[in-house]
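MODEL INPUT / OUTPUT PAIR
PAIR INDEX: 1
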Amino acid sequence: MPQRSSKIPRDAVHHPLFARFYARISVTADLRGGVAAHREELLAGLFGRVLEIGAGNGLNFAHYPAAVSEVVAIEPERTLRRLAQEAALRADVPVDVVPGAAEALPVKSEAFDAAVVSLVLCTVRDLPRSLAEIRRVLRPGGELRFFEHGLAQGRAMPLVQRALDRTVWPLLFGGCHTARDPLAAIEAAGFEIDGYRRLRVPEHGPTLPTSACVLGTARRPALKE
């Protein structure tokens, strides 16, 4: 069972207005924006014990393959956590939704075969510390599956993203930062990236500050013999 840390308050994140907005827009993105297919790709082939960090309203739960024996889903925001708990009851694999923060995961070291981050690294308060925690809880050789938005390629949009991050965007969108580089951060945390692909979300329609996404797999290095 997860071990809850006394260092992190039960509601480490509290964005009730954004949580309600996100709960609606994420369902629309899954149904009309093609995000459900990306979730399916993200989770394909997983097995054993999986830790999902920032589970939101639990939209990933329906896509976990049968080889997954247990999902421990961390969600710090109360409104989203309640929705995730409801989604867990409908899942085909066992899902335990618990409070916690990415910077101090309430679970034992080297306890999981895989970890999943899905549109969450943009919001964590301390990105290096969060990734160090994910590395801690993975067994040697364990996988990190990631589907994240971040810094766009090119010249114009990155300037827009950085300007937004310094002004109103995090305040309006639950602490989200648009100009983080998830690939660079994952590598800097000591993971080996197995493969990834860049994609645009939504695939059709206007380009948003959050449209530049990357989906892939990294790995905690195995212990050397």
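PAIR INDEX: 2
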Amino acid sequence: MNKTLPSSRWFLFHNRALLIKETDEGARILTDDDLCTLDLAPDAPQRIGSFDGRDCWVASVNTGTAPAGFAFRELRQVHPHLTENDFALAMRAFHILHWLTTHRFCGCCGHPLRMSVQEIALQCPHCGHSVYPRISPAIIVAVTKGDQILLARANRHPAPPWYSVIAGFLEPGETLEECVRREVKEETGIDVDHIKYFGSQPWPFPDSLMVGFTAKYAGGDICIDPVELLEAGWFSAGDLPALPSGFSIAKKLIDDFVTRHRH
């Protein structure tokens, strides 16, 4: 007897929005059956692996209009309505799709790249050059001074007025700890020490890996870089400003501070 193959998961994006199925229980990732009912033509679907024995596919679509019962949602918006595993798969799908979209041609000879049949990689049939998904490491750090934490508002997110911890990208030849010291100094004028690893989180907006740290104030007065920040200040656990969403490593760092300094 032939066994029915488990239905594949489909991650279809229009720009940065994921197409999901709306149910009474929340949001659900699309399946083969959903795809059959939709009048959509996925552009160059790419298999990105499997989970629980089910293939996972990603593709873009040329319309942002969803039929009844479906909706396009930004990943940040849909997170509370997906399981942890499905959200992780959706982030992986978005990361890979962005990489495929921005790496169509070989950087060595200019010929069109082709997807490898053996791994998640692009290969040039002309010169043999291989291109793997880009991952941009960045640090994110909770700096504390006694029972206060350093929080700042970034220029790139003027509204809503969220505050968060300091973050920045790693530079060539730099250790993660050196990056922590440099970013905090450049953006706020503060010196730090006692740098300790906290955790990490894939952050595919579009291709980062956030490496989290804690650090302690070692000197200096707040003097913000106006190109990066709108404002920065020291806050106590009982008097925090508006904060980022609960699934981000930034929020986890702040929650850890609150837990340790709650009176």
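PAIR 2 NOTE: Residues 104-134 form one domain.
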